[in-house]
């Protein structure tokens, strides 16, 4: 992002002519002035706006003829569908959507420089000393919260698990002060589904792997009904000795309140163990950070995402794990990602995940262009190509060491690609299954996104949102757009915030307010 | 069900030889003794059990050779895959699954007798006088509960609507004593979805129509984010003048608590109107009853479903509306349903819905055989054919006056088929959209199924379950299995219970306990 050129020249008509051009050969720039720019404003010296352009939207820096490339981030984001005069507003109405990169044409050539695993001696001072206070688990993973999770094997038990969650919170948690919370993982799967369809493996391993998220300390407690298609036994960790399963249809339960007693008793055995967890000093290498964006605008790719990407690079350099996701938002930038794969196998896995999703969308008579929202467009993102180029900035610059399929767990330290839909809660749910103990969520339009299983640091791409949503945004990357701070500076700030949140010394907004969304299982298979 | 033959002869080995044979030419019967029947028990005079058979399971009444038809309900439910000796246990291990009826081979011939709409003068006394106390709405529909519903256009607002739901319940409901409850309709749709894919119409109209359920009194209140793909305006009722939409991204809201204030204010305007609703005397013709079964066993088709079907016939005779659903559970009985269609158009619609679902499953590399669960099989239902034949019994015997697609509203009085998956909450959600003001849910294995938008009467197919789940089951149809009561007697009892619950004078189990499941939107389209 060294090529960002910021021009704060004030236009003769009084508007502050602030625009951002990402790459030297771009022929559009982004209006950064919060109130937008008026007709007559002069930007980058020679471009006079011929119409009003809102914040986040693109101005043509030269006259484009029909069919000309429109370039942002040094990449083609579309072709002019009519003559676009210099100084005009460039948007989805006057540019066409390019074809996505053909997967078979992307060749994997040279392996990148060896993995960021720089020896700790050579690390910069701030990174070498960095640590956080986490809960170390028997399997070596580290929790950032101490949560009793109630896994469910089927959707019909949710009425009861909701009831139990409240009861445990009220009656048991006060007795186990080291336990932060109790969370019932309710979902829409388990019965009335085609359990043998090829797509079924995705939701099943997702539920199984979420139960093993580091924040739950290996205390797996499963509530089933008894007659469901998804057998609760399939959700147990491999080589497990301490998990427990309870069936509501168990004949020993005479009526509802006996079920409740049975579950409360089981919960206590797990709470006793969880209550003994203590935070100890952990290294950055113990972080597993899931990066996601949602409700993006044109600033996301300029501020929030690259700042998060810089923090991601720091974590990877220090030996930690970071992953990014959202297949439909990397699909159009895949030609930039394949060359970053660690080796040819990883490169192929990356392309395979794209191909799988292309086919999944095709089956539903859609394609990746269905990703962009009215909000994206309102925020200045004309199409999925422009959105994707900004979205991948949150991956930083590290080599990609591995790719995992939806619902799978990450097993390698370094930067991973975790294949998921871009749909926010489907993505977050799969990232929980992948094993994240920290979530960074970047937004431009604003979303109240919150999960109660891991801390969610909400990063805003612009200060207008951060100011308005002062109690919902944790970190404002907006100052980057105005040149007030650099990406590097803010990346370090975000890195330090991640450590504080991971240590439990700083609470994120959604934890303060108790705002939590339900998880959404990605089920590519049919209902029956 | 006049052909049920019950044999209570005690076997020489001391087991009470209770079996049920549904149709005279059946060659299997169902073990009805709660403890199952022991080897050596004699049933129906001449059949000596050659092995132990659990309750709900089938005994061969004659020796079957490989390829022989296995008949229950007078229909072929499979073919013997090896010699099955008289007195043996017939189950999924020794019978094969027949092909589903070919849709193109089912011809619609004679229209049935004119719709049950017998004139009120000719109705039996108990039906003629029957009425309930409901909330009549401006559009003529009638509510059985008085609920403030908060509709959401997108999944990310759920953290906030959950927060609001609690706050309204605590702070506002005490001020509006005529309002029963507040319910936020959270779902997993609205963004990150292919809004232009052909399948998208299903979840969209479902959300829109649920907001118009009679129990909400036409007070539609929608919470959106602002940048979602599903525009909240699409969810407004047609010709609407009193609905309200609130966007969390509205720039007038500075932070979370201002959003909360905005929503609370909007809620009050709706609560004021809802609070003025009063119950008035309504006729059976104002009932809209959705029938569903879940966690079925072999008794479901003998007790719970036909008893519910008898009650359905009473309601239809009195001019009311009843619908049944669950495409995968009628697919194998479709040859019995098409002849009941009111006219050729309805017959074709019925077949079209089957064909749509066949294709939907095919796309996901599954078929209707994916429907049966381990619990069904454990309960004695060997395959989907046997399950379907029992499942359709809940439709009673009335002609089918109309067929509506998933998410559509029912518009005709009488018996309707509302096409839905069999998956319990997907089905219930679509039945809410179809406009039900009363839900009858039949279960054999037991499920804690509960919805807070309409009362759910839970009917058990066997007394063993009803006794064990004494506080979760509302109505035990089990006595029918033992000849203690007739289907007719119990059908009338269920009918009267429906009226009491519709009047609010009797509370169902899940309302007493406050056990409610989340709705599940059926989305045949892909995520992005
Ligand atoms: Ca995104
Ligand atoms: Ca996302
Ligand atoms: Ca919930
Ligand atoms: Ca069913
Ligand atoms: Ca069902």
UniProtKB/TrEMBL annotation, chains A, B:
<comment type="similarity">
    <text>Belongs to the UxaA family.</text>
</comment>
<dbReference type="Pfam" id="PF08666">
    <property type="entry name" value="SAF"/>
</dbReference>
<dbReference type="InterPro" id="IPR044144">
    <property type="entry name" value="SAF_UxaA/GarD"/>
</dbReference>
<dbReference type="GO" id="GO:0019698">
    <property type="term" value="P:D-galacturonate catabolic process"/>
</dbReference>
<dbReference type="Pfam" id="PF04295">
    <property type="entry name" value="GD_AH_second"/>
</dbReference>
<dbReference type="InterPro" id="IPR052172">
    <property type="entry name" value="UxaA_altronate/galactarate_dh"/>
</dbReference>
<keyword id="KW-0456">Lyase</keyword>
<dbReference type="GO" id="GO:0046392">
    <property type="term" value="P:galactarate catabolic process"/>
</dbReference>
<protein>
    <recommendedName>
        <fullName>Galactarate dehydratase</fullName>
        <ecNumber>4.2.1.42</ecNumber>
    </recommendedName>
</protein>
<dbReference type="InterPro" id="IPR013974">
    <property type="entry name" value="SAF"/>
</dbReference>
<dbReference type="GO" id="GO:0008867">
    <property type="term" value="F:galactarate dehydratase activity"/>
</dbReference>
<dbReference type="InterPro" id="IPR007392">
    <property type="entry name" value="GD_AH_second"/>
</dbReference>
<dbReference type="InterPro" id="IPR017654">
    <property type="entry name" value="GarD-like"/>
</dbReference>
<dbReference type="InterPro" id="IPR048332">
    <property type="entry name" value="GD_AH_C"/>
</dbReference>
<dbReference type="Pfam" id="PF20629">
    <property type="entry name" value="GD_AH_C"/>
</dbReference>
<feature type="domain" description="SAF">
    <location>
        <begin position="26"/>
        <end position="96"/>
    </location>
</feature>
